User: Fold these one by one.
Assistant:
Number 1:
Amino acid sequence: MRKLTLKYGKAYTELSIPEKNLYAILSPMDLEKVADDREEVKNALNNPIGSIPLKEMAKGKKNVVILASDITRPSPSHILLPPIIEELVEAGVKYDQITVVFGLGYHRKHTEEEKKKLVGEQIYHKVKCIDHDINDCVYLGTTKRGVPVEVFKPVTQKDLLIATGNLEFHYKAGYSGGDKALHPGVCSKRTIETNHEMMIQPGTMPGKADGNPMREDIEEAGRIAKVDFIVNAVLNNNKEIVKVVAGDPIKAHREGTKYIDKMYKRRIGEKADIVVASCGGYPKDINLYQAQKGLENASFAVRDGGSIILLAECRDGLGEKTFEEWMLKAKSPHEPVEWIKKDFILGAHKAAFICAVLERAKVYLISSLDKDFTKDIFFTPAVSAQAALDEALSEYGDQAKVLVLTNANSTVPYVE
């Protein structure tokens, strides 16, 4: 018998699995942080991937725009921006010719203090720092998938565009980083919504860039808007920099994804009958809306007709109003899957993604949610992970394969 301790909320839960049934335990493998963050950025700038050096590219430029992530993202802009701006100034660009634009997407505007915190005191006082405005965008063209590319007006007036950000899995666009700083970062509501509708298309999943329609559309928008150069930080689970990549928006991005894959992508020989998935504890399982990432990743490892045992405390309930409305008004898991095809609504999209998993697997939910409420949203409640596992093993028999994800929100299993 193998005894495991898994994170659940701010605590832990114990689980015993018969050795004969234990197929695999998949966990992230964080890389160590670099010795010197600033030197790592400088090294990336001095060794660009698929591009001439930024200093060379910046010569003669009069209006440089740097895209930076907003306060909701872990991108270390205060570390990335100083060496970038140093390079620009050495190339002859003046401080008053540099604008940092924070990509808000749908998010709220920053306070001046938040802007200062994001870029650091010195940069804040040397260059212009502004928020993207979703209502002040200019049409630049349409992608081959029919998405209108409407970009924040000041970004379109640049003669050099640099995108910064952090690299991590994105549950539908494959990865963050690269051209995502532009789209959805600094685009219009119409552009963002039209691209987000691609989430339901085949091929959209974490850990897949090439052949992912959503990612490819984002990158086509990047070419239309002429993103010239990217600087992306790869972070581990502690939000420490393990690698910085710089250069061509596609080539440098793909190099960076290799480090994400090494830490968080895990190969399996075949899908399991039962997948036990801990989201990774608080705050990753603070609500079902966040825990959806762990459920989605678990779904890549379970066979059709199998069972997932999801450990997600959900101390804040479902976590999003529209998501909750869709989950509660549906009479079957099939309904949200069909509704989203006719009317794509952000928030509701996660109800459709959860229900798509519920259609192909039985999902036990170990949470603080009321038992009847859990049933109302099509999950199977269980008093503990052990009780759910025992029930699933009795259903699938002695030879059932059990796979465990110790940190499901950030681990992507794939069959090769």
Note: Residues 2-28+269-415 form a domain with the 2-enoyl-CoA Hydratase; Chain A, domain 1 fold (CATH 3.90.226.30).
Number 2:
Amino acid sequence: MSPEKISYFVLMGDSLTDRGTIANKYLWGCIPMSWITGLDKKSPDGRFTNGYAWSDHLSAGIAEDFIIKEVGKEYKMDATDISDAVIAHDSKVRAHVQDSYDLDDDLVVRYKGVDFVRNYSEGGLSAHDYSWVPSSSLSRFFNRMVVSTLEEMREKMIKYDETHQVSDTQKKSTLVIEWSGANDLITVNERPTIGEAKKALKARVENVEELIKKGYSNFILFNLPDLSFTPMYQQKSEYERDNAQSCSLYFNERLRIACNELKIRYPNCSIECFDINSLFTDIIQHPLKWGFDPEKVSTPYYGSEDFYNENGSSPAKGYIFWDTIHPSADMHALLAHHFYLKYQFKYNFIAPDFLGESQRKEASSTISELRRQFIQEYGTRLAKDKNSFFGSLYRSNIDYKNASLEEIFRHALYEKGYRTRASITHLNWIDKKGNITLKVPPLETAKMVVEAKEGIRRDPPEEERISKRI
């Protein structure tokens, strides 16, 4: 049987997968969550680590794999030839690589204008919904009230599908990767228990089944690392460590069984359980083998003497943990690498362009489709601005829901429409210098018309430029 073709990815989870979402969020519309979480002082990129998260590394790695396959097919080049061409600034290869993707948006990663990775992950997320559940601890009750849940993320995902009219074909070529449950054991509850593990497991299984009903069929569920190995529990009593370990192992065994049961119940679906715990355990027990410092195994990087560097960098060299519970950026990179190695042959990761390329280009080239993309992108950015601390000060200076392509280009390129420009750059209509990158006639024509109308003001005659310099 040939591997399932996968061109789209949906990531669901908590702080381990969060690409900056909680850092960009405002509590009650006015209090930055980056202050509450402390990310503004200890994280350079809004992630719960000292750099990029595993989800960033995976997204970038797959996008680069797309590029290599594309360029290799078109120019008959292998990966080494492509690397040499990039270093040599080969224009034909550079055109494929430059602005093909970026990691600036915490919610999506686009490959040549297509949302190929969607991220529904937030720091603090719990699998089970604990909101309004009483607690003897005021701080835990507050956490239960403000953290997101797996169900809420699923609702956002379904809303996106409806808004963007995601087809059944696209859903069949989407891999849903879900990793949650740790906060159910250590954040919204006083201590890990078997009872809370069961609730989290039930929520994760329900999430898969609900998404199967919506047409998704490819799933990978991560198990939990042994929580007793984290600095948080290494600082506690042996009793607490044993309890954390037994709950972690129970959780993982029941998740394995649940995945097997789901496979039997849904034989036409691909449902995998990724054993991250075995990797974590091996790294902690044999740190030198993996390039980590044995003396730093249980030491969090944040707060250590190595954390404060005069040059402002934060390499966390030799550290497994960033803080008392979250992995360092090196660990995140290692996790993404092992995930890719395990599944690169089970699935055929192929760029969205290769799935019905002619149909996608035809749809993208229509004016109505281009305007729909812009309205969605601009509206998302405007809503994010209005939900920020100074949200009441933000407004739109373009009638974005009714703007023509010419009006969009004029506002973006000549009227200081920063939000408009950011939107069409992210949609891959233009590059960062304002040059057309999505080669479709309606865009090229609209930009040409605007440039013609703006030509005198933008490009005065050569003799006029010379006289002004004199």
Note: Residues 93 and 386 are 40 Å apart (CA to CA).
Number 3:
Amino acid sequence: MFLKNGITHLEHLNRYKEVANIFIKHGFGFLFDRVSLNNIFGFFKSRARNQDNDVFTRPQRFRMALEESGPTYIKIGQLLSTRPDLLGKSYIEELGKLQDQVPPISSTEVIRVLMHNGLDPERDFKHFYPVPIAAASIAQVHSACLHDGQKVVVKIQRPGIKKIIHTDLAILADLSRLLEKRTEWGRFYHISEIVEELGRAIKSELDFMNEGRNAEIFAENFRREGNVIIPRIYWDYSSENILVMEHVAGIKIIDFANLKKSNMNNKLIAERLLKALFLQIFIHGFFHADPHPGNIAISAEQKIIFYDFGQVGSIDHVLKEKCVDLIISMMRYDVSGVTDALLSIAIGSQGVNRADLIRDIARLEQKYYGLPMAQIKLGESLSELLEISTRYQVRIPPELSLLAKMLMTVESIIVQLDPTLSIVDIAEPYGRRLMMRRYSPRQLSKKSLDVALDYARLVQKMPHQTDNLMRLLNEGEFSVKMEHLNLKPIASRIEMLSNRLSVAIILAAIIIGSALAMDRSGTNLINRIPLVEIGFSIAVILGLSLTYSILKSGRY
């Protein structure tokens, strides 16, 4: 029965039921109906549905269900909050409120985890503080000091969290395949691919070595920028489950009371943050995907400190250029340019009504046209553009959604720091810098060389491919596949016209035959049958029927 319903992990049945019960309790039982799992979970429904009420909105209940379901679902919700191409604005805003706060693990358990990963608190640290300074569902953070006096923070993964997350991801993989198989929207959104993508992101965060490598990439990218600080990673102490990094003290970026007390310049801080942001987008192609206020601080020298590199976005050279074209076109209110850039970025855009898409994008641009630069929200407008693309079934790479979310998060911080600052004005020099680099003699010569190499490879392949084609022709194995689109109405119309033509020919034959019969004379049996009257009667009936059908169709 379970295999029939697509559930392949029988050992996870209790967890299936637990998660199902939570979502049904919060009013999402219809999801299980759609994938025909009611025969497995149905006995929960009558009891759980009675607990549901209309006090909370559906997005609120969705957030509550995710929080109650545990760390995997909280992390899934956080990742979904970066996907305006998948969820509406109300869901995105609600998922931004997800609470990832859990009781810390005991000091004894902390020591055990450290020892299991090759670290002895007494041997490897001058001081180690067993009480955490922060605790979340996947890891908790402790203060420590190395023997050379360097202050560090130690990020420790919660024991057993990998098994929980792998179990939940297996369950979600099963359900996503069912949704894709049995629902139209599941197939359209390629739900199984999305779950697989989210699973990869979560598993990547579970390996703290990845986070350490991301931090080092950021440090290298900003090596020549004096206004950004990235904490140093101590690799000798780090592993898949433990990350030890430099402790860089700073004031949280939205701790306005302490910023003011320390005589910080909010406008300068906002400008430096935006410049760091646009360097990541326009130049590096590697950006911090979770720059919420808890992950950004300000040093005593008013430099920007970035923390937590578990979630990052990466765009290759080609996608970066397309994204830049999109952003620059948006800043210039170039509707046609925005449309072209969006469709060039899209994973799939077949059958899109371009005229309607341009109309809706023009409406979006009109919303911001004429506003003061300081009031234009680049991230918000990009997020709305992704919502439009979803309506037109234009699939967008997840990197662009991450980019939109990152922009929106930083913009919300900038507005609080300096509401008069124009994000577009700060972005423009970086876009111009990229354009100059793109069309520099060096880049143009490089592109010309790339094109020449492509043609050279094509010429090399051509004799072999031509030989294969001639062989297929000689052997009679060459075939052409044709697919007709929307020909059914045309075929029906042709069939109807053919029927009318046939009736008209028969009608003409009867009339001519009846007319000839009128000239016949004689006294035999045939002549005594009223053939003329019968023929003309049939002709009148057929003629009236044909005339009626033509008038009724309105095509005459």
Note: Confidence is low (pLDDT under 50) at residues 1-5.
Number 4:
Amino acid sequence: MAKVVFTPWKTQAQLLAVRDQFYPPPTYDGPDLRSQACAKVSIWKLRGSLPHPVEATALLTDAILHDDAGKNSIFSIRATYSAAFCRFVTGLVDAKIPGMRKTMFQRAIDLGLPASFVELRHEATHRELPSLIVLRNATQRSLEWLWDYYWAKVDPHAAAAPPVSASVPADAEEVDGDDLGVKESIRDTLSPLVKGEEGEDQQPPRKKRKAQYQTTTATQLVSICKASRKGAVVLSRVLLDESVLVPAGRRLGDSLHDTFIKWEQLLQMITESHSAFLSTLTEEMVNDLAFSTQTKDTKNNACHEAIYTWLDHILRSTEWKSSRRLLSFSYLLAACEANPNHWTDMLKKVLLKEEVKRAKGAVSLSVPRTQTQTQTQTEAMIVDGNADADAGALRELGWESLELWDSRPLGVA
């Protein structure tokens, strides 16, 4: 006997209509109907039996619509983003969900949810609210993930699907069609730089011309990453698999100094415009170190040594200091612990040292000081890398920081 399923919508057409309002087709040029979709979902919520992906999509979309500094304070915008994002992640990976007892990270891996989402949820729940840039990026990535996880399966043959998804068969693997086209675009964009590195008869360009070309290349790659839901992953795989960040024919112990000079600035430009790229790249790197099955002798694998050297450089060099806040330290550690080997053990030591430094830095910012140091302490409490800009925006809207509480016993003047 067929199982009866109760839904808050009367017909499948109603659900598809709401989906098209959340994810309008590329050819749609009408008014923005996302607020109507959120209102419809709130009504469905009252009826009960609302799937979590539908509710999460509405919450995340409503947070985006709330993102208006002219009407709302920066703090309320960050709080709204954080609440929507935390509910989205918790509803998927909550440890109290019936079934085998697993950690949130384990449940995330089972669902294909980026581990960085779990870490960001933990940060927003137990630490400082993440910066507005991080929250905006995480919300966009969450909506893209929800499309693949739920909405694309509602009607796989719908013609109104966002770009690329509708053309992929329902039973096809996620790595053909779409990814092949993205990969070819990335290869074409990187090709002049790669040939410039390998060609012996090509004259090296001047510094100014080289910088301009790198800027153009970075802009094109960022556009590709933002246009495709898996763009950052595909770009990371091209950089790692096609002798870009790991030179072809490299031997164990060879220096990567020239490779750093060649590619580091480009990677930083991409990270500045697309913050999700750095966390994706480092996650793909650690996956290669921890889960690669190409060889058992990982210690003498020159490719693994090069990947470890890149990770060590990103984690400890001054050039990447300002970008390290974008990394998912929890995932990198979890991957190292999941499959210990020579390079993951070394990477784990580096990660633990960096975690200690971060903890010491956070503690030093919270040490009480005298009244004469009030201004310095107020500035030191701004832990988030983007909080300075948020604080400036708050001051423009009439908000000011209060002096720190001077703790003393009752009755003491």
Note: The chain is about 60% helix and 0% strand.
